[in-house]
Design brief:
Layout (H helix, E strand, L loop, with lengths): L1 H136 L2 H21 L11 E6 L5 H15 L4 E6 L7 E5 L2 E4 L2 H17 L1
Parallel strand pairs: 1-2
Antiparallel strand pairs: 1-3, 3-4
Helix pairs in contact: 1-4, 2-3
């Protein structure tokens, strides 16, 4: 019985061994193939990871560079905005100061003009009042005497005047008198002026009672004022300056 079963067992054992070997071979081949596939996949994944790490590093570098560039641009914009704001503020301050100075200067000039106008009006008023008083107090004969005295003084002053500054194009000499010139006064004026300017000229005569007395002579830019009204006005100005001091 045992002898009969032994070959069968051997055959079964061999067959099992062959099957086991085949299965092992198949499993080993599949396992090796799977391992190879896994290794390949691992290498691919590793390669992809390296590429991804490089891309991440590059992206991080680019992000850092972009961030630094953006921060620099933002800083430059802030600085430019601050400079522009400072320039606008400085310009506005200069304009405001210029306008303020102009307003103050205009106000000062206006005040000075008002003062000048008031002073001139007062001087004229004083001269008018003085003229009225003189006319009321003095008779015509007395005024004539005052005029004669002042006219004589004027001729003496005229003889001492330096007329070298009178330009050659001045041909007319204007004489304004409280009373019409006498022949002697006219002759004396012509003699003095002709001798000094060394040329002929036209004597233009005018009469103005506002002078109160005396004579006013004009030739070019030069004027010699011997009128009583002017002396009163000069006296008022002098007295005002003395009082101001």
């Amino acid at each position: 019985m045992v002898g009969t079963l032994l070959p069968f067992i051997i055959v079964i054992t061999i067959a099992f061994a062959v099957v086991l070997f085949v299965l092992k071979k198949m499993l080993w081949s599949d396992t090796e193939s799977a391992v190879n596939r896994l290794q390949t996949s691992y290498e691919e994944i590793k390669k992809q990871k390296i590429e991804l790490d490089q891309k991440l590093l590059q992206a991080e570098t680019e992000y850092k560079n972009k961030k630094e560039e953006a921060e620099k641009i933002a800083h430059d914009l802030v600085e430019k905005a601050n400079l522009d704001a400072a320039a606008v503020r400085e310009d506005a301050f200069k304009k405001a100061k210029t306008e303020s100075d102009a307003i103050i200067d205009k106000a000062h000039k206006t005040v000075e003009k008002i003062k000048t106008d008031i002073a001139r009006a007062m001087e004229l008023r004083i001269v008018e009042i003085s003229g009225g008083l003189i006319k009321d107090v003095l008779s015509d004969a007395a005024l004539e005497q005052v005029h004669k005295i002042m006219a004589d003084d004027f001729l003496k002053e005229l003889a001492e005047v330096d007329m070298a500054m009178i330009s050659a194009d001045v041909k007319d000499v204007e004489v304004v008198s409280f009373r019409p010139l006498t022949d002697l006064q006219r002759k004396r004026i012509k003699e003095i002026v002709s001798q000094k300017v060394k040329r002929d000229f036209v004597l233009v005569e005018k009469t103005d009672h506002a002078l109160l007395s005396g004579i006013l002579l004009k030739f070019g830019s030069l004027a010699l004022d011997g009128a009583l009204a002017s002396k009163i006005r000069d006296g008022v100005i002098t007295e005002k300056q003395r009082l101001d001091e």
